[in-house]
């Protein structure tokens, strides 16, 4: 399970991107960094969570366009 603090960080990344405070490149880097800092994640959990938040980021990007 992803720690609550990590989820809050990832949600903030998406919110900042939606509010146009973060570029898509920086948002992807921030998501990756947040997940790498969560040492309790297995590689499978890391990939699954990145995919979930990556999809949210793609949706947010399409809304911004």
How is the topology of this model organized?
Blueprint: H1 4-18, H2 24-37, H3 43-64
Helix pairs in contact: 1-2, 1-3, 2-3
What does this molecule look like?
The N and C termini lie far apart (33 Å). The chain has helices spanning 4-18, 24-37, 43-64. It has one domain (4-64). It is mainly α. The protein is built from three helices and no strands.
The largest β sheet comes out as: none
Given as residue ranges, the uncertain stretches (5+ residues, pLDDT < 50) are none
Please estimate the helix content.
over 70%
In what range is the share of β-strand residues? under 5%
Distance between the termini: 33 Å
Q: Rg from C-alpha positions?
A: 11 Å
Number of domains: 1
Helix-strand string:
HHH
Q: Find the count of extended strands (DSSP E, 2+ residues).
A: 0
| Mean pLDDT over the full residue set | 83
Shape: elongated
Look at the helices and sheets and give the structural class. Answer: mainly alpha
- Give the count of helical stretches: 3
Short description:
This protein is mostly helical and 65 residues long. 78% of the residues lie in helices and 0% in strands. Helix 1 (4-18) packs parallel to helix 3.
């Amino acid at each position: 399970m992803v720690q609550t603090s990590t989820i809050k960080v990832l949600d903030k990344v998406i919110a900042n991107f939606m509010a146009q405070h973060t570029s898509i490149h920086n948002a992807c880097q921030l998501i990756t960094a947040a997940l790498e800092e969560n040492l309790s994640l297995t590689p499978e959990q890391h990939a699954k969570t990145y995919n979930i938040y990556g999809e949210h980021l793609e949706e947010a990007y399409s809304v911004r366009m």
